[in-house]
Amino acid sequence: MKKIFILISLLYNVSLALAQTNYYTTTKTFNEQGFIYQCDVRESGMVTLYKKGDKWIYTPQIIRSTGEHFIMYDDTPDIIETVNNDFIYTCKSIINKAFSSTEKQRVKGSKFVVSMYINPDTGKIDEVAFEFFSIGSYATIPISVYRNIELGIKQKLSFKPTIEGKKLNYILYWIDVSPEWP
Q1: Measured CA distances, 137 to 36, 38, 62 (Å)
Q2: Is the bond into 182 cis (omega within 30 degrees of 0)?
Q3: Could you tell me the sign of the dihedral formed by the alpha carbons of 8, 9, 14, 19, in that order?
Q4: pTM of the model as a whole
């Protein structure tokens, strides 16, 4: 009886290990159904995942009129109108809906970063990138989940740039978040 219990436990653990494939161990391109994503893995193990062809991901923020690099200091004027609770709620709701119950349980207690690259003229979110560790639970989440988050964010969220924000080539806003359980 003890051997049967051990065998069942081993089979269960193997099935869990197989179900938790790590998709993001090396830098590579994902060519999926109608979309292409780039996965960049740094030496630190940090993964940056974004839609291939996005132009702002590694471009410095600059002040358009001068070409100078923009650096945000504590006393820098706001570049977007204040983000309210409705915005945060909608963003978290989009993320929560993208994850299955099993995926939510797998990532429970950890967070990932969602970076939004905002058009300073329109306030629309032009690009979305994700960051997480290659050995963490978010590395087991399929690309389609991140794609659904990106599409939901672009469709349902926008910002209102301030006069200062409109001076930039793009506005970067990021949050660290986790899907809610259950």
Answers
A1: 22, 19, 34
A2: yes
A3: positive
A4: 0.86
Count Cβ atoms within 10 A of the Cβ of residue 89 and give its class: 0-12 exposed, 13-18 middle, 19 or more buried: exposed
pLDDT in tens, 10-40: 434 434 444 569 999 999 999 998 899 999 9
Buried b (16+ CB within 10 A) or exposed e, 60-72: ebeeeeeeeebee
Sheet of 28-31, strand order: 28-31, 36-41, 46-51, 125-133, 112-118, 171-177
Question: Which 3 state secondary structure label does DSSP give 88?
Answer: helix
Any idea what DSSP says for residue 30? Answer: E
DSSP 105-139: HHHTT--EEEEEEE-TTT-BEEEEEEEEETTSGGG
Q: Where are the domains of the chain?
A: 23-177
